[in-house]
Amino acid sequence: MKLKSLCTARHALLAALLIGHSAVALADVAPLSVSGNRILAGGQPASFAGNSLFWSNTGWGGEKYYNGNVVSWLKNDWKSRVIRVAMGVDEGGGYLQDPAGNKARVKAVVDAAIANDMYVIIDWHSHHAEDYRSQAVAFFEEMARTYGKNNHVIYEVYNEPLNISWSGTIKPYAQAVIGAIRAIDPDNLIIVGTPNWSQDVDAASRDPISGANIAYTLHFYAGSHGQWLRDKAQTALNNGIALFVTEWGSVGASGDGGVATSETWAWVDFMKAKGISNANWALNDKSEGASALVPGASSQGGWSAGQLTASGALTKQIIGGWPGGPAPTPGCTRVSLPAQIQAEAFCQMSGVQVEATSDANGGSNVGYIDSGDWMTYDVNVPAAGNYVVKYRVASASGGGVIQMEKGGGGAVYGTVNVPSTGGWQSWTTVSQTVSLPAGQQMLGLVAKSGGFNLNWVDISRVGDPVDSGITIQAENFDAMNGVQTEATTDSGGGLNVGYLDAGDWLSYPTVNIASAGTYTIEYRVASLNGGGNLQLEEAGGSVVYGSVNIPATGGWQNWVTVKHTVQLPAGQRKFGIAVRNGGYNLNWFRITKS
């Protein structure tokens, strides 16, 4: 049996942290630590997404967002889990010129982050920090004395070194500052910048700093930095150091230009797969591509969708959908296809309202859909290919046009016309065929032309029988207790779930069982020696469908398929897997009508 480093109680605590509803304030945040190339929260792998504020410098414009109202809005509306205070140092209006003003801004944000149960990065935002070592030591000593007992606080001792030596210049500077912090605060996470604008993490990985709970800064701008920089990051991870992307942008390295959507998503996929926490640059209204807000946006939060730039809208979507983050909105449904999705189960929206419906089966529909309004939905697409999308719509007069796209924009999958049906509750079904990529993702529905209501959306694979097999990747759980994900060598690659011991459990997004009957359930499993027992149930254990024994396969990556048959009722089912006897890994499970 694999051994875990923490007790079941701590697993339960972390599970509550990771899946807790955003409306419920946590008493604290889990302490961060470094183990190998991973940053842990409460002793377990975790990652967080959030925002970096712009330079704090007096008179630069971004300092107006250094306040508690902004922090609260980012936590509650954007679902941000981390915020970075980019305290300018040696530039005009920075800490060296105005220490009182800059320090007051930093403390305002740190205090608000602690109150909102967010992690907060205190960043010495300079390109020449080695020239101000004594000032950095004094500053971080004060921060450590003030905040060192708070799990929330992370120290970033050097933002972006330029093209200078890691071992000869950056490392000695960092060791001096780290030593000063550690004399006061022995354990909070410290992040160290790396050469060439914090891109050469591979150089740092070949000569790492001794000490506990130290990670290294990686910065990227998707419009300029592609696979070559991810390769450097992978080298650093392979060499055993932990990374934190304390600054990233969806535009070019200059901070300006258009959004590089596909490359941004490539980076998001990489960070998710590697468990790398991150903060987007920048929460500001400067007239440049990297700014999240349009010029003149309120300095106190409360921003509408229209006040977000293209970068800001994309960033908000990425943060809201980050694994382990709180549910984006009450009612947001995470489903695996094929499925019928109720329109009101959106994760984010702009401009629409929910109202009672008189359509069959009652409930609610989404109404007041005008041109430019949108909703997003969290779905798992089991395999890339063509899918039939049916929309249940009503329109009193003009009809409209629905566009299905990747949530946040970018890829457009198709459009369909909505006819006039003669009334807001006179319902009909329209359909289109779209080609979807595989994987967990946000789908967006945009009203290209408004004037209709929407009750539900039904998505099924073209050519698949109604009761064809549904494959669910084990790592696509929406809640769990006691397990971890890890890279797999099984066919198809990706991740598997490991460390499944007695008492552990997982629950999965809702799937649609088209008809009642006998179903074959297959599980892709591996076990070094002990095997175990797996129970399929309704999430929460109210209904048990059956169990199957897991054999020893001779290795944690020696994969076999086991199966059993169960009786399933028709309808929307939220399955759970309970581990009755442990010691195995799980890659996927498949549900097929017998």
From TrEMBL:
Keywords: Glycosidase, Hydrolase, Signal. InterPro entries: CBM6 (IPR005084), Cellulose-bd_IV (IPR006584), Galactose-bd-like_sf (IPR008979), GH (IPR017853), Glyco_hydro_5 (IPR001547), Glyco_hydro_5_CS (IPR018087). Residues 339-460, 470-592 form the CBM6 domain. Its EC number is 3.2.1.4. SUPFAM superfamilies: (Trans)glycosidases, Galactose-binding domain-like. SMART domains: CBD_IV. It holds the Pfam family Cellulase. One of its GO terms (molecular function) is cellulase activity. Gene3D superfamilies: Galactose-binding domain-like, Glycosidases. Residues 1-27 form the signal peptide. Belongs to the glycosyl hydrolase 5 (cellulase A) family. PANTHER family: ENDO-BETA-1,4-GLUCANASE A, GLYCOSIDE HYDROLASE FAMILY 5 DOMAIN-CONTAINING PROTEIN. This is Endoglucanase.
